[in-house]
Amino acid sequence: MPSFDMAASLHQQVQAASRERIQEALLALLTPYFRPTFGTGKTVEHEVSVLRALKLLGVVSVRATELDLVMTLRVTRAKARALLYHAQLADVQDMAALDDRVHEVLAYPRIGKISGRDDEPITWLLDVPFPLVADRIRQLVRQEGFISDGSFSPNLIKLPTAAYGAVVACLVPPQKREALLAAARESVKASHSDDLQTILGRVLWHLGKQIAGDVGGPLTQEVGKELYDLLKKGGSALFKQLSPSGDGR
Q1: Phi and psi angles of residue 71, each rounded to the nearest 5 degrees, phi first
Q2: Are 228 and 107 in contact (CB under 8 A)?
Q3: Residue 58: left if φ>0, alpha if ψ -120 to 50, beta else—which one?
Q4: Burial letters 78-101, b for 16+ CB under 10 A, else e
Q5: pLDDT in tens, 106-143
Q6: Residue 95, CB-side half-sphere exposure with 13 Å CA sphere
Q7: Complete DSSP assignment for 101-123
Q8: Which residues of the chain form beta strands (DSSP E)?
Q9: Quick one: 10 exposed, middle or buried, by C-beta within 10 A (0-12, 13-18, 19+)?
């Protein structure tokens, strides 16, 4: 493991920081000690305040993951996960803010290894470095009647196409859902009895076959942008990628 002098890094960042940024970090560090009165806060609250101050100073990345904290702070992965979880609980003000982070994860999945058979199921892999976001996705998966596989790693969620499509469909803005469904049916020539989840499953299965070997490539990026637009604004460009037939798997 490479050497990392946390104290030296802290000293350098403080020296380089502006007066305003140092004031922000100091307030972030000390404020929890006075809620509700001095010294009554829990240990984890003070640790989170230190983490927040380190982020403000640039010692720790604003979007630091578990592994980032393990390497930077020299803590166990369990400790890093707990710190991130409590920090996110404090930072996320409402479900909409949490779902914004969920959208970012859902829009750029990876595809599990496939052999290329026409009838082969596809596994969608979601790499979720933030534990609270991962728990929200698992909640949505269960809410839609599916089970997620996180046995390999708590940060990696594996979903079949039907489950992935169901979660995406349930997060479409309610006021956009009816218009999006009409556009989807028209684009893929779907039956009027097909709901948004069903159509998404078909489209995602076909797109998944195409982007399986295009990790980080132009098609993957294009599909990601269209998925994000669908989640945020109810955009229908994703359905214009192709006119699928058959069932999503």
Answers
A1: -75, -35
A2: yes
A3: left
A4: eebbbbbbbbbeeebeeeeebbeb
A5: 998 888 765 556 667 888 999 998 999 999 999 999 99
A6: 6
A7: HHHHHHHS-EE------TT---E
A8: 110-111, 123-127, 156-160
A9: middle
Rounded Cα gap, residues 123 and 109, in angstroms: 10
Provide Rg for the chain, Cα atoms. Answer: 22
Residue range 31-85, pLDDT digits in tens: 887 877 776 678 888 899 999 999 999 999 988 999 999 999 999 999 999 999 9
What is the side-by-side order of every strand in the sheet holding 110-111?
110-111, 123-127, 156-160
Kindly report the length of the chain. Answer: 249
Q: How far apart are CA 218 and CA 208, in angstroms?
A: 14
Q: What six digits make up the tokens of 77?
A: 């992965």
Name residues whose C-beta falls within 8 Å of residue 82's C-beta, 6 or more positions apart in sequence. 44
Residue reference for tokens 């169901």: 166
What pTM, to 2 d.p., does this model score? 0.79
